[in-house]
Write a structure and sequence with these properties.
heterodimer, A: 461 residues, alpha/beta, 3 domains, seven-stranded mixed beta sheet, six-stranded mixed beta sheet, 28% helix, elongated, B: 895 residues, six-stranded antiparallel beta sheet, five-stranded parallel beta sheet, 25 helices
Amino acid sequence: MNPQKGQSAKVAALGGVDSMTHDNNSVCPFANSPTLLIPVASPMRFVHVADVHLDTSFSGRSPAVRRRLRDASREAFRKSVDLAIREDVHALLIAGDLFDGDRLSFTTERFLLEQARRLEAHGITVVYATGNHDPGSPISGPRSLEWPSNVHVAWDDTPRRIQVDDHEGRPVGYVTAIGHSNDREKRDLSRLLPRPEGQLPEVALLHTQVHSTPGAEDHHPYAPSELSYLVRSGYDYWALGHVHIRQELSVDPPVVYAGSLMGRTHTDTGPRGALLVDVSDRDSAAASFRPVSPVRWATILVDHLEDATTLDRLERRVEVAWRALRDAQAAGPELEWMVRVQLVGPCPLWRELRAEENLRVLEHELTGLLGALDVALMADRIHPVIPVGEHRVRADVLGASLRLAEAVRRGETRLADLDPDALAGIAGKDPALVDAYVRELLEDADGEIAARLLGPDSDRS
Amino acid sequence: MKIEHINIGAFGQFTDFDSGPNPLGNLVVVLGPNEAGKSTLFHFLTTMLYGFRPASRENNPYLPWGGLDASGDIRVRLDGGDCAEVDRQLRSQPGGKMTAEGITTELRNRALPWVEHVPAVVFSQVFAVTLADLAGLDAETWARIQDRLLGAMGASDLRPSRTVAHDLEQEAGALWRPHKRGNQRVRELREDIRTLRARRREAVEADRGLRHIVGDLERTRTALAAAREERERERVAVERVQTLAPIRDQLRRIATLREEGGDRDRLSELPASPRVRLEELDAITADVTAQAHRLSTEAIEPRAAASSADEGVRRILDRTEDVRALLARGARATADRAQSASTALDLAETELQLEQHGAAILEVPWQEVPRGALATVSIPELRSAARAARIAEDDRRIIELAADQTPQTVSSRPGLWPGLVAALLGVTLFAAGWAFANTLLLAAGAAVTSIGITLIIQAQSGARRDPQSTMNPGVEEAAGREAQARDHVRTLTRDLPLSEAVYEDAGGTLAADVERLQSLVRDHERRRVKLSESEERTTRFDQDAALLASALHQDPGLGSDALVRLLDTELRRAERLMGAVTPAERELSRLQRDQERLAGDIARAGAQRSDLVRRLTALGEGDLERGLVTAESALQAHLRADQLEAELERAHANIEDVRQRILSAEEAGEAWTLSDDDLAHRRTTIERLGEEIEAAAAQAEALDHEMRHMSGLDTVDSVDGELEALTETEKQLVRERDRRWVMAHLVREADRRFRDEHQPDLVRRASDYLKHLTGDRYDRIVVDEVTDGDIFHVSGPGLTKPVALAPPISTGTLEQAYLSLRLAIVDHLDQGGERLPLFLDEAFVNWDAERRNRGLEVLGSIARRRQVFVFTCHPDVAAELKDVGAEVLELDPRT
């Protein structure tokens, strides 16, 4: 690796983070260009995964859905192992957060060891650097497992340089890994890695938050690092974990977040999987994304609901939006979906959708209609179909209420005598926090205030 | 704003109503009994100001009676002095226009620009309060009026803000309250979450327990495996002594026998008992030889029978088909010979006739007549030509005779009779020739008939002939025709060598002669061919018969008929002989095969014996007897070893495994004997280990069962998932609760602020009105929104403390207080804009005279700055108002 080349590296993906209606693909160059040329010069092939989060406590609505998601996360990891075996790679690199918590369930533990033994049987080296979710606790976590001999765990801030051999025992490259020893690592661990030397490819494996990474604001800034330092470090490939959005921060050398192996929440939308990295020639290497997650998360925003006067019409609107999203993602029929439907704006059914029971019924129907694993319907941002602007100028209590709500939202006034203790959703009495909370609560309240003051038929004329 | 003129085209019950030519004043009394249209008039005026509501023709309750379009117009005088005309109508769509300062503007259904500062609903509710609103109200209605007048400023389209806030607080409270009273969804959820956290702890413990169990299970299984291994060792030792040792001895005995028997390969070709086998082979040879001899004896008789069929018999039987074919052709050959003889006679007869006929008509022998020329002569044409020649000759003769005898009478001419006689004779002859197939008779008949016919024709010709034709030129002409006819006859027969004499009588038998010649020649040719064919067949048959006879060694010179008979006889004889020979030959064949088989048996037995003797002699090193003894001894040893091995295999199905274990034990140097004490000790150990294994297995099974059970329990992540789901729901509900609670707070605060903003001036004005109306008995209205209970109170000089504006205070005082509030609200509402007209309906009915007078004074005072319409059905009230300057607009109940 030529450090001078590294200094001229550029950040390849600086797009926005997940939006409700867009995939994370928008920030990942692999999505549109599955093969990426990487200028390295020695034979080495490996699979790069990160943020597997086994035993994640999925918050699906039903036990069956939660069970399926738990199984699916294991299935995604098993598919990564399948990929490594099928592609006959030399190593599988795990860039942290293999576990979600400090304790693996017994079943998952067995599963993990079984997969490690499968890789061992095929002569594939596993290098695993711990992250903030699975730090190197001696009692639980990665250190407590009886790993087979092919697994090398970097569980603390001591860098470990592992030689990777081919199936004939000849060295093909090196992986230098460093891990989190606790769940609050604040140091820049990348600075602790030694400068690479030798003629074979050198890969760095680390769970870190690179400054200014899109999507980083969703994660704690543990083990922060600087892209400019990584680029100058002399490594041929930086296999990173922590940020769940798959992205390539630098092309030369590649500094790459593999993204989470499978989405965990509705913010983790879009295809998820592993990176197959081929460093067979250090001057011309390639990496490609391989989706392995059997479950994909998606959020669809449905607005302009003025014509949704019946539940059937509302369902049809949701179905149309859903089809558009599926067509855009060109997903296969075998994929399972966790769908969040966010309803926004004026809606004649706002009163019906305020009832939790109705929401559950509608979610159930939409789950069948969309063929999804589960559908979560969010109706907290809809309001009655009422010309609020016209009512706001009234010289009566309604007008006064709407004007007051607007003034509160703008921070021009505060609600007098508001006892913070009477609020269930905020702890403490910090006026600024209370005001912000109240402003958030009143964000879409105008329509409902008007509807309640105008009476039951206010939005049906 | 003042309404100066009212014109109702049609509206509700009104039709063509007009307020009159004079502008209406500031105080207008609308007098009319109940149902006279006071309410309709009020709605008409409201419609003129704000437009039709509802705007659809179908739903508007003031659609004119009789199906007319609602329409009307008013003229208003604005506070600034300007005047405006307003015209509205409701057809399929509401329409309207406004004319002010000479400019007409389309209103459609919009409100007038000078009334927009007061919403239509507020105008309807605040600027017109009926008696029913002010009198006899219960507490609930009072509360409503309070909100209507002061909270919503009279807007009846709003729910009371306090009710709305209360509902929101109730809903929020159903979700969560700071205290624990009542059902609270969020607290229930939090309780569920606490329960789940306990379950999570249980899941953690269960996971820990599961790991312990798995550890115990693995340890138990290890101990179990060790115990089984030890028990196996002990069991093997005991088994070695008790079971394997006897087998080992037997195996050793077998090995010794094998050794005694020596190399088994050298015995592999020997029978189990060589001596007995030698004797068997000798016996076999003797027996087979005897059988062969018996077969030779049995073959004598059939062999003699078979030899009775000689060569000649076999020869003719071999040519049976040819002989039968020749016999079949013999009959045909006899017929052919008879036919040849007959045909030869016919041919001779025909040649004789040809000789005779040819001599009569030919100049050369008949054989020289060209066959082709004869065949091509057309007999009909020749006959016709001959007849023409004869007629020409007759004509010539007749002409010549006539010329010679002229003049002669007709009677002297020969008559028809000679001709008729000749013709009849000719016909008779021809018929006889036809009947007897006699050519001569046929020819004679034809000739005589021709003569007769000629004579008849001559007789007829002579009878018709003109006497003038008998002149000489006619003779010459007839001679010419005759010569011509004769030439024609010659031409037709020119290729035939006919004699000249035939032509002399060309008209006679020439055609018949030629025809007969043709017939005879054809018959001769046909018979000659027939004779030739039959003779050829006969000759061929004779040749074939001679050839076959030669082949069968018979004399061909016997002639074909004799040969046929001879061969028929010989064939029958041969077939009869062969009927007896065939069975004998079949029997001979069978006997021959048996003899051959026996010969083979004898040869094999001999070979086997020789081979056996050779092997035995070799074993005895040249001595057969010694070889026999050696072989029998070795074979016996191997036989015994085989028996012992078979016994072992029957007793031990896994004998190979046992053998291997013995070998392993021998290689390991294991002991094959144990003392009784040692053996007993080992047995005890095995029993003890068995019990331990049984216990450990039961324990392992129990642990395994428990492990499976615990594996099915909640896992930490599954409980966490449920926890997160509940926490998420709790978060949403908390947010929703706070949202409703804040909205309630906001509505209450907006209501309070609104009141704070409007009440001071409003209450002051209301207090002024009340003070005047009550003659200073009550001089102030007090608003109390802090304490629960009545909001409005009144105070006065005679009262020690404010009195709640509610029963038991008098109805009149209540009405006066709320009229005061209402008048104050009206002043407040259109402050800064056009002052809109005020409508009062039976406002002073319950008042005493003094207060009514004060009320009228107040109205008079208000009317100076705002137009007031007072609706009443009481003429005295109208009169009193008229006294203070009011203009009375009387409604006709029949309008």
